[in-house]
Amino acid sequence: MSVRLSSLYTASALGVGNDASLASCLGGNAPGMREIEGDIPGRRIWFGFVPGELPAIAEPRWNMRSNGLIQLALDSEAAFADLVRRYGADRVGVVLGASNTGIDEAERYFDEWLSSCADAPPAGFDFSMIELGTPSLFLRERIGAKGPAYTVSTACSSAAKALGAARRLIERGICDAVVTGGVDGRCRFAMNGFHALGALSEGRCRPLADDRDGINLGEGVALFAMERADAADGAGVALAGVGESSDAYHATAPDPEGRGAEASMRLALADAGLEPCEIDYVNLHGTGTQANDAMEMKALRRVFGDELPRYESTKRLTGHCLGAAGAVEAAVCALLIRSGHVRAALSNSFAFGGSNASVVLVR
């Protein structure tokens, strides 16, 4: 079954909203990228922030930056809540990709709790902050949906896999529409984890460069209103293909030959019914590490041959948005398609443990 992404909203270091994000992408600008210190002891790093202030959330169980990013999207795009009016609350689901949820907020409360030696956690703490399902439950409540709501958390492929999971809910008749995508906010735990792996760049991330030395991290949100193509109003972008693979080569390192990456791209193209020559843009996973970029280019050349389409990694502008990366980068593809710059795009997301996903979007 063909499904259409009838509406979308994205915010990242590219900017807040679709117009700002597209303009920054086309201009090679990253207004939210800046150097910070204090999150990793003794080190300054570059991080991609969503510019400006986020909406305030009063309820402690929802009060985390990732939910603020979701609320920003809901305040800016009425189409997500409108799905409930059109289809009925029971027929609208929510599937998001995320990896950090409210871990950063919870960690700050834990620091305060341990230093105070109190018997109970400080006021404002809620265990929902460390539950992976929280962003999806928050979104479902805010739009008034009553269908399935869950979060996919497969590290850096989370949001791309969420798109596939959302499509399956519609294909199987469980939902008529799904709000899907991904979200992740700034998280010290993640920063220090990548630092421990030696994966952070000493400066700005340089995907595919000979002297690349690692990633920059970032935060972001991208939400899509997904509907059956025959029920949508004809606007938007079609999710034509999804490919998923698991090479399980190593806990944190990719297969040097890119066999899992190749498989996910081929599966996505086959699912879309497209030949490689019909893709005119590829948004690479492109983290900027030596290992990832080398294996991804090997896989890309095996899939596309000598005539490569235009390709790039927008992580140089957004930072790596972790669980949200697949959605933020799919949103870039969708915006390029809607604006007429691209006809058919493939977006790659490859995660720790060899959890790979590729999606194909077409006009």
Q: Bin the strand percentage.
A: 15-25%
- Helix-strand makeup class: alpha/beta
Computed Rg: 19 Å
CATH domain fold name:
Peroxisomal Thiolase, Chain A, domain 1
Poorly predicted spans: none
Q: Please identify which CATH superfamily we are dealing with.
A: Thiolase/Chalcone synthase
Query: Averaged pLDDT, please?
Result: 95
Cα(first) to Cα(last) distance is: 16 Å
Helix/strand order: EEHEEHHEHHEHEHEEEHEHEHHEE
CATH top level is: Alpha Beta
What is the tally of beta strands?
A: 14
Task: Give the total of domains.
Answer: 1
CATH architecture: 3-Layer(aba) Sandwich
Helix content: 25-40%
Task: Produce the secondary structure layout.
Blueprint: E1 3-12, E2 15-16, H1 18-27, E3 33-40, E4 43-48, H2 65-76, H3 79-87, E5 92-97, H4 103-116, H5 134-143, E6 149-152, H6 158-171, E7 177-184, H7 188-196, E8 217-218, E9 220-228, E10 237-246, H8 259-272, E11 281-283, H9 290-304, E12 310-312, H10 315-318, H11 325-338, E13 344-350, E14 355-362
Parallel strand pairs: 4-8, 5-6, 5-7, 11-12, 11-13
Antiparallel strand pairs: 1-2, 1-9, 1-10, 3-4, 7-9, 10-14, 13-14
Helix pairs in contact: 2-5, 6-11, 8-9
